[in-house]
Write a structure and sequence with these properties.
single chain; alpha+beta; 40% helix
């Protein structure tokens, strides 16, 4: 905007974000590829810019990562909330393999509850 010498207040840009974000999200959901029926949920501890962080990934059978959660701290509910978000944003998986995730019993109970 500055290059074209248009002066816009930050509040105007914020209103544009509130107005356009749902429209953009709807278009993205329409164009999103289908996710396979078999998922793998993985937790990894990685170093980013010198800080250790947790990366939760959801990968389908073909190896395509379709959802992730990136956090600095490992909270008890992080894997559960991530799984709920992944299921709500995609179709219900037939099989979920849980790899390297703490609190596996809680996640398995959540998966069984979601399937019922």
């Amino acid at each position: 905007m500055r290059i074209r010498e248009v002066i816009v207040d930050h509040a105007t840009i914020q209103r544009w974000v509130y107005k356009c974000a749902p429209l953009i999200e709807a278009e993205i959901k329409k164009r999103k590829d289908r996710v396979g029926a078999s998922w793998r949920l993985d937790e990894t501890y990685i170093k980013v810019k010198g800080i250790w962080c947790y990366l939760y990934r959801a990968v389908d059978k073909l190896g395509n990562m379709f959802d992730f959660l990136f956090t600095r701290e490992r909270h008890r509910i992080s894997p559960c909330s991530f799984l709920i978000k992944a299921i709500s944003n995609n179709s219900q998986p037939r099989v979920i393999n849980i790899l390297n995730v703490g609190k596996i019993a809680e996640l398995k109970a959540l998966v069984i509850e979601k399937k019922s």
